[in-house]
């Protein structure tokens, strides 16, 4: 009876896109403007290109070891204990990054919507919502992403299209920025936006056609990266790079400044926060899922059902650790940097070893 | 007729004599063969089920010397038929010329069955417990002296009501027939609409006490055999004393009982049932219930009616959009109203916001409480109207509208806009064709109202995400509940929100894994419009293929 359901190529692309298009949406144009001035769109593009490297590495590995995720073939390649140590690092990265995403979400809610509500309440709510849905298999996991994706993609696109008429092309020039670009934080920040694409490692075993994973992963990055670039483009086009640096949440400001349908919706920002909630939810869902998946692999549980509930208080604790927004931002930055480094180097190492030891791939089957 | 005092005494005596269940079972002689003596057998039957007022035993002689008896329940059998087709020929039967006694006694039962009895359906049985079962399910049992076999004739006749239009699923354009309680009548309603030898009906009893006949219908060569097997497996696992209604079966076999959403569709309409069978679904029917269960059922099925298909496709599609809007009304309207009023009034145009707050000026409650009170009273009114006799029902609904609408506003209990919202919500929920989904969504709006009161739009969104995630998690017999809205691209385009022309729906839903995936022979379209794009001769000379031909190619 139980015909095994599989994930198609398009669906994988959608999962990657909705995972990578996430928490950063609100403040991302500001950090880009800080790094590159009016060259922000170009910087985002560079970040996108840089983000493709770890993605391709992980997909290539996935193609060599069909039916396995990195948590399993890592042990095959470099031995059990070193691989478990790497798995622990992976788990820590995704656990901390999902905790920090929920913290960032709570920050926005308590500065914009619930000014008197304690931040713990908003964090607990979104973590609970996520934890409820983490107790299911990967096909159902992809269903959730597929269902919400149109509700993320089209509103943002609409927002950009509405704001197009107010863009001043002059504030986007020069394209390379006035000062030399600060690649050090800028490129890493842009590239780390797409770290969620690591999710393909657990998707590939469930794909109908795993060989097209490379295509779907790249398309997924292009979809979300395209939206990011459009967003930076329109925010900078409207506010200019100097003003964008002053805005805490430039995208939210953008949504405040427009109205729709001749005054039927006087202000867009409340609706925008709702859409943004879904955006954060899908991203957080992926990293939470990855964290609990990694945790279950670490201790050799059958699946992530138990670990997802267990992680909830841990994540809540981690999310409350940073004392204010500024420290939080520092932590996020160093986490993104180290994460990007680790998620590029570890798969690279595995790939090289698998090539040298001739493990996996067509020959091994 | 005995007096009640005598009946009572007899009952008490019987209780005293057979204390302990083991003895009672032994007295009914389970799995004992029939004894050769007729009197013995009759005594056993009288002892076991003889206290019933409607058990009849008719003793008579066959050919003036063989002692025989007919045993039946007079309440369930066709008295006239017994007289004319069993009793009369048996009593008039004359011994043949050959006076060979012993062989005749051995073959008497066969000879009677072959030569005299005018009944089409009968069976032999040699166990006494089987005799009990047959008698209690409406068979007439013929017992012979010095014979260890008995013969049972199917002569069931049960009073039935006429075939009427189903009250819960009325349509504008569609058949006016609905199922009734008798399984055989219901099966005939399906049979004459679906005249193919491939329609298979498997029946069997379910329920230890009621022995209700449960029929599983499917079309061989269309329906996925694995689905049929799964349905039968789940039915076979039901271990319960009584199946009163098809709803009992539904609750025992559904995938996820802890869910407000039904995962099995029920219908009173034979035409809908036949359409489901043709799509490759399995139908379950229960004797004594006028509802058929359709398996599997996905969410969008509950929003489709038969006149979506019988009416032209543009109208059908538009009506479906209206239904979707009504669904969104009934689920979200009150909670959106509460959250906009209490948290985000800036979303509204200024004039309108001022008008609303003017209307709410005299109301002492917060918006969430106000809406909650009105919604609860609306639900009470709705529930009360269902239970009321039709005569009073109409009057009550007028009183309800007056009291709850007009008077509540003038008493300062609710603002006029709240009344509008509540009315829209209620009407919206009645536009959903399936009662069980409509009530699920109606009940889910209460948690949404509370979340809206607590966290505004953000709360509504959390509630919505939880509901949608639950829907995404649900399965009906292994088929994702939202399949058609999610991954089934062809199904989504042809038969969900939009109802495509019939000739475009030439393939069966893929999630059902039909054995025969095409509905028209070679996936060729046969409409006038499509004919324009084909060469003339080709479009005119199309001839319908015989789909009942078992040797035909089937495309999976």
Automatic annotation (TrEMBL), chain A:
TM region positions: 12-30, 42-65, 86-105, 117-134, 146-167, 187-207, 219-239, 270-294, 306-325, 337-356
Keyword Ubl conjugation part of the UniProt annotation: no
InterPro entries, per database record: Spore_GerAB
Location(s) in or outside the cell: Membrane
Keywords: Germination, Membrane, Transmembrane, Transmembrane helix, Transport
Record membrane topology: Multi-pass membrane protein
Pfam families noted in UniProt: Spore_permease
UniProt similarity note: Belongs to the amino acid-polyamine-organocation (APC) superfamily. Spore germination protein (SGP) (TC 2.A.3.9) family.
Protein name per its UniProtKB record: Germination protein GerLB
Classification lineage: Bacteria, Bacillati, Bacillota, Bacilli, Bacillales
Automatic annotation (TrEMBL), chain B:
Keywords on record: Membrane, Transmembrane, Transmembrane helix
Transmembrane segments: 321-343, 363-381, 393-413, 419-441, 448-473
Pfam families to which the protein is assigned, alphabetical: GerA
InterPro entries per the UniProt record, alphabetical: Spore_Ger, UPF0353/GerABKA_families
Record region (Disordered): 534-556
Protein family per UniProt: Belongs to the GerABKA family.
Protein's recorded name: Spore germination protein
Source organism of this protein record: Paenibacillus vini
């Amino acid at each position: 009876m139980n015909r095994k359901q599989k994930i198609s190529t398009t669906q994988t692309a959608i999962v990657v896109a909705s995972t990578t298009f996430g928490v950063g949406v609100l403040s991302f144009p500001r950090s880009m403007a800080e790094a590159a001035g009016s060259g922000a769109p170009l910087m985002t593009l560079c970040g996108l290109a840089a983000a493709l490297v770890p993605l391709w590495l992980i997909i290539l590995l996935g193609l060599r070891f069909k039916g396995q995720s990195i948590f399993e073939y890592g042990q095959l390649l470099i031995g059990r204990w070193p691989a478990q140590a790497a798995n622990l690092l992976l788990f820590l990265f995704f656990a901390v990054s999902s905790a920090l995403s929920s913290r960032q979400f709570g920050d926005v809610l308590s500065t914009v919507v619930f000014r008197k509500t304690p931040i713990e309440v908003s964090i607990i709510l979104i973590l609970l919502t996520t934890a409820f849905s983490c107790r299911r298999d990967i096909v159902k996991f992809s269903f959730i992403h597929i269902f919400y994706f149109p509700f993320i993609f089209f509103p943002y696109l609409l927002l950009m299209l509405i704001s197009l008429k107010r863009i001043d092309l002059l504030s986007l020039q020069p394209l390379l920025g006035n000062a030399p670009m600060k690649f050090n934080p800028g490129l890493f920040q842009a590239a780390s936006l797409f770290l969620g694409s690591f999710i393909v490692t657990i998707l590939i075993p469930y794909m109908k056609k795993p060989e097209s994973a490379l295509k779907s992963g790249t398309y997924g990055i292009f979809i979300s990266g395209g939206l990011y670039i459009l967003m930076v483009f329109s925010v900078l086009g409207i506010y200019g790079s100097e003003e964008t640096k002053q805005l805490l949440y430039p995208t939210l400001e953008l949504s405040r400044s427009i109205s729709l349908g001749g005054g039927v919706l006087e202000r867009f920002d409340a609706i925008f926060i709702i859409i943004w909630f879904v955006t954060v939810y899908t991203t957080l869902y992926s990293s939470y899922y990855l964290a609990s998946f990694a945790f279950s692999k670490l201790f050799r549980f059958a699946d992530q059902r138990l670990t997802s509930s267990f992680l909830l208080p841990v994540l809540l604790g981690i999310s409350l650790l940073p004392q204010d927004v500024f420290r939080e931002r520092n932590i996020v930055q160093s986490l993104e940097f180290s994460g990007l480094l680790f998620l590029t180097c570890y798969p690279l190492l595995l790939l090289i070893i698998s090539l040298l030891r001739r493990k996996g791939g067509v020959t091994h089957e | 007729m005995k007096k009640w005092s005598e009946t009572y005494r007899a009952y008490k005596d019987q209780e005293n004599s057979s204390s302990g269940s083991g003895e009672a079972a032994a007295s009914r002689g389970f799995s004992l063969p029939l004894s050769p003596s007729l009197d013995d057998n009759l005594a056993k039957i009288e002892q076991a089920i003889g206290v019933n007022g409607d058990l009849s035993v008719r003793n008579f002689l066959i050919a003036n010397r063989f002692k025989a008896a007919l045993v039946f329940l007079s309440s369930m059998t066709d008295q006239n038929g017994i007289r004319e087709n069993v009793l009369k020929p048996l009593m008039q039967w004359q011994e043949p010329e050959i006076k060979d006694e012993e062989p005749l006694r051995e073959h008497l039962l066969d000879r009677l069955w072959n030569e005299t009895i005018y009944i089409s359906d009968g069976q032999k049985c040699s166990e006494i417990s089987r005799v009990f079962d047959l008698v209690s399910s409406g068979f007439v049992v013929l017992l012979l002296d010095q014979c260890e076999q008995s013969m049972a004739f199917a002569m069931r006749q049960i009073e039935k009501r006429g075939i009427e239009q189903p009250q819960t699923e009325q349509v504008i354009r569609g058949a006016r027939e609905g199922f009734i309680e008798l399984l055989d009548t219901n099966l005939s309603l399906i049979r004459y609409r679906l005249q193919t030898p491939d329609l298979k009906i498997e029946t069997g009893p379910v329920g230890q006490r009621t022995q209700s006949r449960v029929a599983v219908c499917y079309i061989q060569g269309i329906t996925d055999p694995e689905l049929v097997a799964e349905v039968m497996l789940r039915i076979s696992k039901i271990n319960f004393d009584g199946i009163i209604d098809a709803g009992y079966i539904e609750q025992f076999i559904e995938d996820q009982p802890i869910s407000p959403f039904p995962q099995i569709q029920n219908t009173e309409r034979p035409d809908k049932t036949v359409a489901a069978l043709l799509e490759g679904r399995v139908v379950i029917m229960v004797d004594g219930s006028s509802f058929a269960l359709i398996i599997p059922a996905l969410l969008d099925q509950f929003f489709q009616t038969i006149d979506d298909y019988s009416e032209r496709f543009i109208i059908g599609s538009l009506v479906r959009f209206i239904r979707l809007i009504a669904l969104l009304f009934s689920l979200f309207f009150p909670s959106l109203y509460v959250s906009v009023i209490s948290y985000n009034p800036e979303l509204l145009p200024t004039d309108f916001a001022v008008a609303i707050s003017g209307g709410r000026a005299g109301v002492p409650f917060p918006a969430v409480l106000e809406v909650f009170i009105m919604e609860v009273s609306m639900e009470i009114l709705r529930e009360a109207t269902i239970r009321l006799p039709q005569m009073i029902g109409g009057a009550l609904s007028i009183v309800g509208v007056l009291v709850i609408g007009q008077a509540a506003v003038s008493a300062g209990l609710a603002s006029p806009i709240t009344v509008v919202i509540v009315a829209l919500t209620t009407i919206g929920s009645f536009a959903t064709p399936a009662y069980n989904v409509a009530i699920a969504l109606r009940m889910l709006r209460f948690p949404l109202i509370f979340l809206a009161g607590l966290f505004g739009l953000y709360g509504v969104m959390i509630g919505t995400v939880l509901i949608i995630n639950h829907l995404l998690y649900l399965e009906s017999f292994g088929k994702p509940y939202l399949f058609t809205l999610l991954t089934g691209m062809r199904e989504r385009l042809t038969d969900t929100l939009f109802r495509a022309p019939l000739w475009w729906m030439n393939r069966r839903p893929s999630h059902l894994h039909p054995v025969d995936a095409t509905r028209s022979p070679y996936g060729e379209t046969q409409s006038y419009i499509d004919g324009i794009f084909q060469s003339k001769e080709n479009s005119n000379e199309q001839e319908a293929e015989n789909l009942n031909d078992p040797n035909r190619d089937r495309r999976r």
